[in-house]
Design goal:
Layout (H helix, E strand, L loop, with lengths): L5 E4 L3 H10 L8 E6 L2 H18 L4 E6 L5 H11 L3 E4 L15 H9 L5 H14 L6 E4 L3 H10 L6 E2 L3 H10 L8 E4 L2 H9 L8 E4 L2 E3 L16 H17 L3 E6 L7 E7 L2 E4 L7 H14 L2 E3 L2 E4 L1 H9 L8 E2 L3 H15 L4
Helix pairs in contact: 1-2, 1-9, 3-5, 5-6, 5-12
Length: 352
C-alpha cells in the first residue's frame, strides 16, 4: 500500500480492536496501515482486519509495515510516504496491564506510588511519532495515558490532537446503564478517577457525570467490574474508532475525550471538521472542571505545572527506590528522567 488514510502505530490488543472497528466502517474506502516492530504480528493483524472487511462487505483495506526501532527518523520516512490524515498511536514502553502477568518489584512500586510515575515511559514513543509528524497536517490521536502525556507533550513543544479512552470509557458505561437509556451523557474526569469508579469503590473524588445536562451521582452508574483487565480495551477501542472516524471524515461527534491540548484529563467536546469545542454543561465553569481533573492527576501521583512534580506518596516511594528524579524534573530533562526510569524498572522487574 503506497499511501494510507489512517496509520495505526502498534499491534497490540487496542490496535486490533480499532482495526476491527474500522473494518466495519460503512461506505468508506479507507486504506489503513498498521506499523509494528514485528512485521509478522502487524501483518497478522492486517489479515484479520481484511477478513472482517470481507465479512461486513466494506471497502476498507489493511496492510502492514515494519519499523524495527520506533524512532522519529524511521517514522518520518514512513509518514512522508504514506501521507495519512489520521495517526493512531498505541505503542508504549510501559504496558498498563503488566501487573496482570504477575507481581514484581516494579509493579509493586507503581501500585504504591501511582500510575503517574510512568509518565516518561508513556511519553517516549508518542514523542517520537509527534516529532516525525511535525511537518504534516495529520491528526495525532494518542492512546498512551493521554490525560497526562498530552499535557506533557504540549509543555515540551510537541504536537498532538487528542487522546482516547478514560472519560470516554466512563461515558460509554454510563450511556449503557439501564437508568440512562442512552441519553446524552457528559463526563469531566481523569485517569486517576477511573479505576475506583469502574470497580464501584467509593473514593474521595470520582468522575463528574451529567445526564441530559443535569449532574448525577456518578457512583450510581458504575459498572461494578469485578476486575480491570485488558478486556477493557474492547470499550476503549470503541471510543477510539469513533474519534478517528470523526477526524477523518470531518463529521460531527459529541463525546467526552481526554488529552485535548491545554487541558488535563477529559471533558465533553463537540468535534466538527477536526476541531474540538469544549461543551461543558451548565453549572460547571472551565476552571472548576480543570481543578477537578487536576485532583485525578494528584491521585495518579503527579502534579504537572512549570515542571513535573510527584505527589508526596509517589515522591517517597520513588526516593526509597533510588530514583534520582524523585523530587521532580524540568520539562527539558524528561528524556534523562526516562532513561533513569527504564534503568529503575528493569532492575526492579528482577525482584519479586
Amino acid at each position: 500500500m503506497k499511501s494510507a488514510d489512517i496509520v495505526v502505530v502498534g499491534s497490540g490488543s487496542l490496535a486490533a480492536g480499532v482495526a476491527g472497528g474500522l473494518s466495519q466502517a460503512p461506505k468508506l474506502s479507507l486504506r489503513v496501515v498498521v506499523i509494528g516492530r514485528s512485521l509478522e504480528k502487524a501483518a497478522q493483524l492486517a489479515r484479520m482486519a481484511n477478513a472482517r472487511s470481507a465479512i461486513f462487505q466494506t471497502p476498507v483495506q489493511f496492510a502492514a509495515m515494519e519499523i524495527a526501532e520506533f524512532r522519529a527518523a524511521a517514522f518520518g520516512r514512513a509518514l512522508r510516504s504514506l501521507k495519512p490524515k489520521v495517526i493512531f498511536q498505541t505503542a508504549s514502553l510501559q504496558s498498563p496491564w503488566e501487573a496482570a502477568g504477575g507481581g514484581n518489584g516494579w509493579t509493586k512500586l507503581v501500585a504504591e506510588a501511582g500510575f503517574g510515575i510512568t509518565l516518561p515511559l508513556q511519553m517516549a514513543l508518542t514523542a517520537e511519532v509527534s516529532e516525525a509528524a511535525g511537518d504534516s497536517e495529520a491528526a495525532i490521536v494518542n492512546a498512551c495515558y493521554p490525560d497526562c502525556v498530552n499535557v506533557a507533550l504540549e509543555r515540551t513543544g510537541l504536537r498532538v490532537t487528542c487522546g482516547i479512552g478514560n472519560a470516554g470509557i466512563v461515558e460509554a458505561f454510563c450511556s449503557s446503564h439501564a437508568a440512562v437509556k442512552r441519553a446524552e451523557v457528559s463526563v469531566v474526569g481523569h485517569h486517576g478517577h477511573l479505576r475506583g469508579w469502574l470497580l464501584g469503590k467509593a473514593g474521595v473524588t470520582e468522575p463528574r457525570v451529567w445526564v441530559k445536562r443535569r449532574e448525577v451521582k456518578s457512583a450510581k452508574l458504575s459498572p461494578h467490574l469485578k476486575a480491570i483487565s485488558e478486556d477493557l480495551n474492547q470499550v476503549t477501542a470503541g471510543t477510539a474508532t469513533a474519534v478517528i472516524l470523526a477526524l477523518f471524515t470531518g463529521n460531527t461527534l459529541r463525546m467526552s475525550v481526554p488529552g485535548v491540548p491545554g487541558l488535563p484529563g477529559g471533558y465533553p467536546f463537540l468535534v466538527n471538521r477536526g476541531k474540538f469545542q469544549l461543551h461543558l454543561p451548565e453549572g460547571i465553569r472551565r476552571e472548576e472542571a480543570i481543578a477537578h481533573n487536576q485532583s485525578g492527576e494528584r491521585m495518579d501521583g503527579l502534579q504537572l505545572g512549570m515542571e513535573v512534580r510527584f505527589a508526596e506518596r509517589a515522591r517517597q516511594a520513588l526516593a526509597g527506590a533510588g530514583f534520582p528524579y524523585a523530587d521532580g524534573y524540568a520539562w527539558k530533562e524528561w528524556k534523562k528522567a526516562r532513561g533513569a526510569m527504564v534503568e529503575l524498572r528493569d532492575g526492579l522487574r528482577r525482584k519479586t
